[in-house]
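Why show two proteins at once? Because comparison is the fastest way to build intuition. When a single record is shown, students tend to memorize it. When two are placed side by side, the eye starts asking what differs. So, the first record is below.
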Amino acid sequence: MNITQYREAHLPGILAICEAEHWPSLPADPARAHAVCTAPGVTTVVALDGEQVIGFAYLQSDGHIQAHLSQLAVHQAHRRKGIGRALLEYAAPLTGAQRIDLVTDTAEAFYKSFDHRPFSGFRIYL
């Protein structure tokens, strides 16, 4: 496994993982997905098995204090091998932030394994 920063050639693999997770936002518009992955203040990294994308993480940051983990996913066949942790540990320093906030409804045990402080949160849809 190799972890590296996102390039456009990785987009089909990211979209396939999102589709498998039933996350429609990125696959709905691949051009928009690429723009999101490369937007100012965004850090996107991928885990590769050869050329195959087996995981990715997408974070937004002010570059100094605060970052937000927007999405992290590992292909189902590659889970529980440390890939998610490796993605986050690789990406975090690239954001320049001191802390990362996130919202999860499926992976509490995974995120609790990091040094953390829990907060109550909301996702507002406009």
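Second record. Ask yourself what differs from the first in the token line.
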Amino acid sequence: MSEQSEKIDRARELWRLHEAPELLQVVNVWDAVSAKAIAALPETRALATASHSIAASHGYEDGERIPLDLMLTAIGRIVDAVDQPVSADLEAGYGDAGETIRRAIGIGAVGANLEDAMRPFDEAVAAVRATITAAEAEGVPFALNARTDAFIKAPELSPDEKIAEAVRRGRAFLDEGAACVFVPGPLDEAAIEQLVGGLGARKLSVIGYPGSVPPARLQELGVARISYGPWTQRVVLTTLQDTATALYAGGTVPAGTRMLN
């Protein structure tokens, strides 16, 4: 099978996973070894990178402060380390969403997050359009998880206005060819029901965090996808720091530690 054929097959599988009746859970990773650890689990059907976590692991703050070349190199190593489809977190597109997506496809990513950062509506829609156009030019059925930050970057809006704006932007993104709409933020069941009602079943993507709505309930509510952003890295770092504290106190490496590297 050629590299292009393999890429197309992975892209089609990622699209299928977004449209399937089952909730798609993607556990975010940030380097080759974290990707291999997650990919080895039989439940893993696809993986997603976390831009925040990749940036942090290289000493950068989140928000496109890590150089794009370094971000793409990290994503490429993750893609090469696993057999499953990989969706890449490409933040707001690094100034040129179409070109950034083209380069991401070149290293094997078959889906991506692209955030609107609450830019003007027409600019946000144009970025999604540029992404889909670039993917079509590459011949890849790219699964775009188009993100709107209505819940986290529009403090002037009321809760109902945030839902309305997320739906307005999300519908436009879907019309341009996005696979689903990512609405990060503290969403309760009522907000999720309204978003699913406005966007359609199996079109909403959410983030998991401590205390968020459990995956089984999200599936019942018609959510398409859940990812975990920087929280997976935070879990690992919490365990590492707690283990170091125990070691400094005279303890030993925890029993049951697996040789995953």
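One difference worth noting in the second protein: The domain at 3-248 is CATH 3.20.20.60 (TIM Barrel).
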